[in-house]
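Note to self: the last two entries modelled the partners one at a time, which told us nothing about the interface. This time every component goes in together.
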Amino acid sequence: MTTKEIKALLQRYYEGTSTEDEVSRLGILLNRDDISKEWEEERTYFNVLNELQHEEVSVPSDLKQQVTERLQYKQTSHSGQRFRLLYFLSGAAAVLLIMLSALWWLKSGKNGRDTFSDPKLAYAETQQAINLVAYYFGEGTRPLQKIEKFKEAVKPLQTLQEIESAEKKLGYFAKINEGYQTAKKVLKGK
Amino acid sequence: MKNLLTSVVILLLSVSVQGQNKSIQKIFDRNKGADGFTSIVITRHMFDLFSELETQPDDDYLNLIKNLDGINILTASEPGVNSRKFYNTVLKEIHNNRYQELMTVHDTDQDVEFFTREKKGQVVELLMLIGAQKQTTLVWITGIIDMKTISKLADNLGIEGMDRLNKIDK
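The predicted structure of the combined assembly is written out below.
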């Protein structure tokens, strides 16, 4: 019977529907000597709770100040984190802005500086500019071309020189041959 | 925070690298629209539009232009500007930026100087500075410049080159 009653009272207690009388009855039942050991934990819990109810709790005089300080500390630490986050985000935004500006600057530097908007006019001007460069380039390289032509013209003369040199060599052979013949005749005469 | 600073430093460095060797560009930017100066700028963006024009498919000009990034022309004429002073300023800037001197053509009343900058064996910048008595003209071509095509065009210009040149001056 006691066990059943304890169970019913505990259920109401944990559901939060017990009256003060039911709570004190539960305390009395749990502290009976013939109570089963299965209620040991509940008995300890109710005894501690009973002791605490009778114990005087001292409230520090500076409790309000302590609470205020704790709250301020929490607030400061929160705002510090927020400041760091804001600092990082603004830095990242600045970098992004600089990068976009640099991109725009490079792009506009390539596309936005053209003197002409009409490709036909631009093409005509480009041709003229290239002609100007080519003309003076030709002026500068023309003397070199003359030298090249001179070299070409001189090539046949070099062949003639080679023939002349070969003839000279043949002349030596002729003289040697002449000397040989003379020597032969002299030897025969002897 | 460190990452943020690194990003900013990298960004600034990349912008400054972009800005290097841009002293010729500065000459154009500084004098564009100023009294006594006439400038012409044709960029790659415009070159891309040339393909839409009715031109010969084997056009030497188009073959040359297709690899170019831009053509800039700046003329300083007296009395609006001291053309000799401008000539010397440009020449100093060219020498400071270590352009290679290609050749100088001494004409009766003007000197024409050619300067180039090469990258991996290709001419990537060509500067032509014409110093006349009362006029200085700077032509700055950027991109991959095929000197053989320029030479071919020079041959084609031949005797009629001077007539065409007169038309350009007008």
